[in-house]
Amino acid sequence: MQRVQTDYQPVSKLILAYPERFYNGYDELVPFYDELISLVPEDILIWAVTNNDQSSDKLQDQFSHKQINTLGIRIGISLFFTSVIPLKRINKV
Predict the structure, then answer these.
(1) Domain for residue 73, yes or no?
(2) Backbone phi, then psi, for 55, in 5-degree steps?
(3) Is 4 part of any domain?
(4) What is the distance between the alpha carbons of residues 82 and 27, in angstroms, rounded to a whole number?
């Protein structure tokens, strides 16, 4: 029996868009994201994309025991994911 070889590696970083104050109806997902962040192992670096300083400060305070960095942007989150995230993929090609 042959085993399937995957190209997966252990996760070391996580990028997520924190939905607080995005003014698009996703604000109600904040408790879910807080719970998700709390479940991420402490050895994984979390990059949280926010659109305001208050959310960045809240995340830094609430999860001070985690490796969490925030990236503040002032554009809509859909624009971020269609413009910025694909660049990461292009660099790997």
Answers:
(1) yes
(2) -65, -40
(3) no
(4) 20
Q: What is the pTM of this model?
A: 0.70
Instruction: Assess contact for 68 and 46: CB atoms under 8 A.
Output: yes
CA-CA distance, 8 to 58, in Å (whole number)? 32
Task: List beta partners, residue 46.
Answer: 14, 68
Looking at the chain, list the stretches that DSSP marks H as alpha helix, in order from N- to C-terminal side.
Answer: 30-39, 53-62, 77-83, 85-92
Residues of the domain holding 46: 13-92
pLDDT tens for 44-65 read: 999 998 888 999 999 999 999 9
For the cut 70, the answer to whether the pLDDT of residue 80 exceeds it is no
In total, how many domains does the chain have? 1
User: How far is the C-alpha of 78 from the C-alpha of 63, rounded, in Å?
Assistant: 25
Position 71 in a domain: yes
In a domain? residue 1: no
